[in-house]
Specification:
The protein is an alpha/beta fold. It is about 25% helix and about 25% strand. This is Glycosyltransferase family 92 protein. Belongs to the glycosyltransferase 92 family.
Length: about 500
């Protein structure tokens, strides 16, 4: 059943152009009148006009012009404080303007023949204390234009950051129209109507309209929504910031390019961390078409959680929704590991009945190394020398995950709560990830303590020797040399 067309809101914003037009006409009329009066002084005076009348006319014209240029279109009244019972002073607060934007779009993407997802930020207090609403309008090109030619649908808002937002929270607006739109080859645009929904001021309801998607005629290929994806596996990286170690990024990239195979792609989001040294490491992979780097540094203007991490992963999900069978979400200090005699293709084939699965964490020490490596760690990779695993019991460990994107509506950092289908949280040790927390920004040798034991307690935390990744480091180096040559042989820490 088609959605009812939303009622037009004749707000003060819409009225501004008409007010300016009326004022211009008034000024022209007054100027013409005064010019006519001025001309009368050159004729015999029989009508009673005088120099005084002429001066008065121009004075009024100047007064009107001054008021138009110096007075704001709306003057907010002052709400006075009041003295309440018990001599308590009831203070008044006078809000003016906007504390945060109603919506900040990062990306908008088709999710099918009649569906779109708009990914962005919005004022968190507004979504906590009010009920913002979204309406979606599809305006086709080449038609008669106007509302009569548009298709409308209500926008369903998803808040995927689960309260982690700061000044801004992440909002994914899902627009599902009752019929297919834009598939006739005419092109069109998606216009979003966003309303504030009142909040503390229940009587206040303002609306903003913005174009979220612009499609040129003939640009939509409907077969892409059902065609086999280009990649088997795609990596969506979180915001990269800080003084990252090129050597740590080099190891991570070579390790996972080998693990994920040829039909894979990696997307990095630069929030200030992809400095020239890191870019030097990634460039050979970019040139081979294996890596994409996106500059998202402008997001720092908007105070969201952890360099807008939730915003970035949701944009990546919808941007590459139809390009990969599986999308992985984890960080560049985390290394995915499969059990022996297991490969990624066979594992994910067995997990295909699930929309998503989470991956267990193996926390590694970023300081402890083996005594036999003392004096030679400068030439070793981090996964070779950091070989002690934290085995403290009773600690809740974070998980990371992979998802089949065509069944996901929004996502998070550690898992998604907005999917169609089942989720699996127990993979029977078939897949896990080694986490080298605190090492990705270390621009020095991480080894601080050298240990000659298979088990040790350090700073109150028990560790055991775990050389799982150490044993594959040689194969990773050989793979890197075969794939991109020896261009990175002298990468700095």
């Amino acid at each position: 059943m088609a959605k009812e067309k939303p009622k037009e809101d004749k707000s003060s914003f819409d009225a501004v152009p008409w007010s300016c037009t009326d004022m211009k006409l008034l000024l022209i009329s007054l100027f013409s009148l005064c010019s006519l009066v001025t001309m009368f002084q050159f004729f015999p005076s029989t009508s009673g006009f005088s120099t005084t009348a002429i001066t008065s006319c121009f004075s009024k014209l100047a007064s009107v012009s001054h008021n138009l240029s110096s007075s704001p279109p709306d003057v907010h009244p002052l709400r006075e404080e009041q003295l309440g019972s018990g001599s308590v002073v009831r203070r008044a607060f006078n809000p003016v303007g906007s504390a945060a934007y109603l919506f900040v779009q990062m990306g908008a993407y088709r999710g099918g023949s009649n569906n779109f997802a708009i990914v962005g930020l919005a004022s968190k207090p507004l979504h906590v204390f009010a009920k913002p609403q979204f309406w979606c309008e599809w305006q086709p090109h080449g038609g008669p234009g106007g509302d009569s030619n548009s298709t409308f649908a209500s926008g369903y808002r998803i808040l995927p950051d689960w309260g982690y937002g700061r000044v801004y929270t992440v909002v994914v607006v899902n627009c599902t129209f009752p019929v297919d739109v834009g598939l006739d080859g005419s092109g069109g645009q998606l216009v979003v109507h966003a309303t504030t929904g009142g909040g503390g001021d229940r009587a206040v309801q303002t609306e903003e309209r913005f174009v979220a998607v612009e499609e040129a005629p003939g640009s939509v290929n409907a077969s892409a929504f059902s065609a086999p994806p280009k990649y088997d596996y795609l990596y969506c990286g979180s915001s990269l910031y800080g003084d990252l170690s090129p050597q740590r990024i080099r190891e991570w990239m070579a390790y996972h390019a080998r693990l994920f195979g040829e039909r894979s792609h990696f997307v990095f989001h630069d929030a200030g961390g992809v400095h020239p040294g890191v870019m030097e490491v990634l460039r050979p992979w970019v040139e081979k078409g294996i890596v994409t780097v996106q500059d998202i540094r402008e997001q720092e203007r908007f105070d969201g959680y952890y360099h807008n991490q939730f915003l970035v992963v949701n944009d990546c999900l919808h941007r590459y929704k139809f390009m990969a069978k599986w999308i992985f979400f984890f960080d560049v200090d985390e290394f995915i590991y499969l059990a022996p005699k297991t490969n990624l293709d066979s594992l994910l084939a067995s997990l295909s009945p699930y929309t998503q699965f989470t991956i267990e964490q193996m926390p590694m020490s970023g300081k402890l190394c083996r005594s036999i490596d003392h004096g030679k760690t400068a030439s070793m990779w981090g996964i070779e020398k950091l070989v002690y695993r934290d085995v403290k019991r009773g600690v809740r460990r974070d998980r990371k995950y992979a998802i089949q994107p065509r069944s996901a509506f929004a996502t998070g950092v550690h898992m998604s709560q907005n999917v169609a289908g089942r989720s699996l949280h127990k993979t029977d040790d078939r897949i896990k990830y080694y986490h080298y927390h605190g090492t990705i920004a270390a621009r020095r040798d991480p080894c601080e303590e050298f240990v000659n034991a298979t088990a040790v307690t350090y700073d109150g935390t028990p560790y055991v020797l775990d050389e799982t990744l150490r044993r594959v480091a040689g194969a990773v180096r050989r793979f890197e040399h075969k794939t991109i040559g020896s261009r990175l042989a002298r990468t700095r820490q």
